[in-house]
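Appendix B, Record 12. Input sequence as logged:
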Amino acid sequence: MPLRRSRRAELPPTVSPEAGVAASQAMNKRHRWPMTPWLTKWNRGRGRADRDRALALTQRELAVTTEDRVAGGTPYLLIRSQRFDWQGSAEGGEPWVFYIHGGSFCWGTARDSTAMQLAGALGVEVASIEYTLSPEARFPVAIDECVAAYRALVAERGPRVLLAGVSAGGNLALGVLQRLLAEPHATPLPAAVLACTPWGDLTGSGDSYRANEGRDAYIRWKGQQDIFARAYLGAASPTDPLASPVHATWEGGLPPVMLTTGTRDLFLSDVVRIWWRMHDAGTDVELRIWEGLWHSFMSDRRLPESEQALAEITAFASTHLALTEPARR
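Logged structural output:
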């Protein structure tokens, strides 16, 4: 779908024209509390037809197929590239991606454009997890479901896997990693971890929650993310490291990690704080920050910055999954 400028975006001239237009078209509105079932259903349904059309177009353009499956009692969507054919190895099996979608824990689905982009770019199968959303399921149900699915899929496919998530999915991916580190002999760790603009602090205490309030094109804290945090947490403490991974110590020998964010990301402080924690623990952790870009910008395929982010992610994943050029179908 072509970009159409609707109003002048207040962005620096250092970002692409496409990013300026995309920001001007974004909706960053406040929501209501409490998150009643009726309001939740209405918010999840708003714009569904447009999203479905965009996802169908993405799927066709990237030449990926999808199949509904279940692992460890948790539904997931298996996404395959039609362009590549990987052959497994005796040492580690076929490379694959365990992906957790975002959506403030309250919406989003496994049929996610970023998951499809990873399948198309890497040429590997992506297992996109359909965890139960809040407020129907409170913390830590989503983490429990993701851990169960991860263990079942690693037992089936092997540990040559990239554990990945975006936004709230990045939070859940880091929660899965903490659970695996707590039981080091129960399930193999992933080969690498990718957390794109992860929501790392459900207290909203970082500097970027103030500096980027109203500057992030897609999300805000007051009247929006603070509501979704309460809907997800229920009676749990927002400082629990499983809920807010900025408080995790990250001891125990992590696999290589890549964190991504932008200078206008509401969660920029979360990402930087997680990077410091991992860095201090001796982790091989890479931090990528994009100038002038907002939360989850890499999910918008129209942006040159998104293409650049996907190229960085592809290089990282290719290195740590030991990918070479697969056979084309």
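The radius of gyration is 19 Å.
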